[in-house]
# Entry
Amino acid sequence: MTSTTEIPRPTTTGLPAPRGPLSEAVITLLRAEHDDGLATAVAVARSVVGDTDPYGDDLQLALHCCYQLHYRGYPGVDDDREWDPLVLGVRRELERAFLAALYRDVEPGDDVSGEVAALLVEPVGPGAETGVSHHLRRDGELWQLREYVAHRSIYHLMEADPQAWVIPRLHGAAKAGLVSVEHDEYGGGDPARMHSQLFADMMAELDLSTVPGHYVDAVPAATLAEVNLMSLCGLHRSLRGALVGQFAVVELTSSPGSDRLVRAMRRLGCGPASIRFYDEHVEADAVHEQIVRRGVLDPLLAAEPGLAPDVVFGMRASALLGDRLSDLLLEAWSQGRSSLRRPLTGVSR
Amino acid sequence: MPRETPDRHRVTLTGEGPVLVEGPVEVVLPDGGTVRSDRPVVALCACRRSRRYPFCDTSHRARVRPEHQEDHP
# Structure
């Protein structure tokens, strides 16, 4: 071992606090050791799902809990609940509501090349440089940067995992291309270089908890929704085109944004582990962009041209949810308040 | 991106962006210095705008001002 990095133990936090009747029902369902009350929880979930905001805290947290069974699970919750028909039945209701909202709000299209070309243009000028990474580079404060990292931890501590579900749903060149990017995300065989590990190293340096799930209770629905979209598209073969679209957006847009975050970290005097995570993504994602375009999207659409509308849907849904989160962060910070449901503890600078 | 001749290293000229080289590579710079990259695919900057030269950092991308900005320079 040449690395001094300590690999975190594969621990996770317990079930989060419910945020309404739906998440309450799901958490009850997961906690229950006996069958008593399970049917009631399912009935409650089914009766309220239609009246619940599909982007809101209650539904998104409920969905997040259902999906966690497919990743790390929860201490005290039987691993076999992953395939419990009652849980899956409720999950399907939640997914239908979430998907219906996305199909309502995302304009359909089938021009993948045009969509990609639009993402490969860097808007410049005061009116265009309005996103979170622009703000953090320009005049973000350390407490805002730490909040940003806490939001991102829901995904980055399991970086590349939701996209791994799509591997057996792809074939030939598209599969080989996607796996080569995923292999890079998983450190190319070196656990110390796994992107999830680089992210944990950064969190530790920023005095944040590296325990997966630690910030679930703190993050709003908009943060959970972005990751839920990945799990939703990853776990459904019928949404494989959308998963690839979501994956493409991340890989195509990450490089310039990561560069801005490197500059934010340097300006704020952050340590080497913090700079390294985003620094690695500038160079890695410049390569990934090329592989995703030439090695994943082109062969996928050549093999399955009918997936084009799904790819565009995944790209636009991902952008929609990304914009919602970005707006939420910037609005809170512009008012000088936390973007989290509970403020962070630890160092203030 | 399967190779037609598996015994040769493939170098892809992307046209608008970097030169893609199968890694790992050792790149010799004009001053005689070397840099290495262990990635399976390495993107070498061809536009000389990269802040991470010789590696691509996507600085070749078109930078576009939204139209309404031109009215208010």
Notes: The longest helix of chain B spans residues 67-71. The first strand of chain B starts at residue 11 and ends at 13. DSSP finds one helix and six strands in chain B. The CA atoms of residues 63 and 69 of chain B lie 13 Å apart.
